[in-house]
Amino acid sequence: MTLNCNGKILDFSSKKIMGIVNISDDSFFDGGKYNTIDKVIPHVHELIYNGADIIDVGGFSSKPGSKLISAKEELEHISEFIVELISNFKNTIFSIDTYNSSVAEFALSEGFSIVNDISSGKYDINMYNVVKEFNSGYIMMHMQGDPNNMQQNPEYGNVVESIKSFFKKKIKELHNLNFSNIIIDPGFGFGKTVNHNYQILKELESFKTLKRPIMVGFSRKSMISKVLNVDPNNALNGTTVLNTIALEKGANIIRVHDVLEACQCKKLLEKLN
Question: Which residue, 99, 131, 136, is CA-closest to 118?
Answer without folding.
Answer: 99
